Amino acid sequence: MDRYENCRLLPFEDVTEQSFDMVIGSNFKGAYFTIQKALPLLRKGSSVVINASVGPRKGWPTTSTVSTCKAAVVHLARILSAELVDRGIRVNTLSPGSTDTAMFARFAGQEQGDAVKGVLATSNPSKRMANPSEIAKLAVYLASDDSAYVVGADFLIDGGVAAISPVGA
User: Does residue 43 sit within a domain?
Assistant: First the structure.
């Protein structure tokens, strides 16, 4: 199995029950039960940061499974925030846009991966992809005591993809 099978991009009519279960299992079920199992270890002042995506805010073709899962984890964070706030445990989500990661190695050949990265970078209002360290800095903030008043929030870090319309650009 491809290590990036959990973010498989398929047209709606090509999604099989097996590919659906794989995406749901790793992107939603995995997050859900990982947090549940970690809960006994979380003390007052703990912070849970769930990785989501800009995808649920857009209507991108071929993302019917992965974007739906990411929308589910954003809502899960809100529900868990309500359930855990009295214990002093904060839950938030981080919703990155295109980020230059090893995920692009899943394409057949470096040339194709580089082509996809080029399209993503040029279609982004910031005209580039995020560096993973930029995403990590926001995650560190959300995990720190500096964000102690941040509860149940979803943070977009997408170079303006969700906020800026390409119309008129």
Answer: yes
Tell me how far apart the alpha carbons of residues 104 and 120 are, in angstroms, rounded to a whole number.
11
Residue 132 is assigned to a structural domain of this protein: yes
The string of DSSP codes covering the chain is: --TTGGG----GGG--HHHHHHHHIIIIIHHHHHHHHHGGG--TT-EEEEE--SGGGS--TT-TTHHHHHHHHHHHHHHHHHHHGGGT-EEEEEEE--B--GGGGGSSSHHHHHHHHHHHHHTSTTSSPBPHHHHHHHHHHHHSGGGTT--S-EEEESTTTTTS--TT-
Could you read off the pLDDT of 9-47 as tens digits, one per residue? 789 999 999 999 999 999 999 999 999 999 999 999 999
Q: Has residue 141 been placed in a domain?
A: yes
Residue-level pLDDT at 19? 93
User: Is 31 part of any domain?
Assistant: yes
How far is Cα 94 from Cα 45, in angstroms, rounded to an integer? 19
Structural domains of the chain, count: 1
* Alpha-carbon span 101 to 117, nearest angstrom: 10
pTM: 0.86
Query: Domain limits at 51?
Result: 5-157
